[in-house]
């Protein structure tokens, strides 16, 4: 009997893993239907029929909607209660991240990560294991991720909106937790800064800074023209504009070690000998940790491996990169985000 119970538990675990994709795709469905927005705007709990009347689908099958909501309740995104014999739905705390129009909204990240094309590389994990194999992204979509973004403007916009969403969450943590990082410097270049969302927030919080976003020409061409932020197109492997500090948020994890060293050397050349620094905002893996971000960090490590050929790194791996690029020291600070802050000192 004990063996049978063990077998049942093992099989149940495997079934949960098989259907692990279901939560992210049902979450995407909830976002596309705007369920959290509808309940938020309603201002109170809502019945299934009221919800059905407001979602953007013609002739809603209420039974299907009820079963989707039952799954979302199980995911602890929405609450359910019986009011005078009628089931009514409300928002759980996590569902507030699905409500559009505020700085903690995660909808762009959800739509980007669960996009069909951006999920396709996960079907090519095995094919990418060869020592000199193309990335899983190349296997799935026929070109590397940077070529694909340049050739597909709509997907590039989706990708950039997802990155801007992550930047908003991350920048909030930086401004809140790391004010001292921006003291003593007058200019800041955000390398790979995308749409400039993060740098604009920093510029507003620290108006003494001259802020410049530096990215590939097609990214700069599609980015908003914020008055607080200068925009410069270019290639970080060739040169980086000079500034008191260079910042890279979630950039180095896209690249292998040798490419990272090349980028870091260009950063080192761009800052002054006295007081210059390079600010790296990226994940620092602790493979033994079991904190609430740990599994996400491991997932993002695989994400980098499949999509860019990059990786998330441990402190020892960061230390080696920084010293191999000619820096003389560094320090790491935890912040209220999945990433950490690494300050690298070039001289």
Automatic annotation (TrEMBL):
Pfam families reported in the protein's UniProt record: Dimerisation, Methyltransf_2
All residue ranges annotated as the O-methyltransferase dimerisation domain in the record: 15-100
Stored PANTHER family: O-METHYLTRANSFERASE
Name the record gives this protein: RS-norcoclaurine 6-O-methyltransferase
UniProt keyword Methyltransferase present: yes
BP GO terms, sorted: methylation
Molecular function as annotated in GO: O-methyltransferase activity; protein dimerization activity
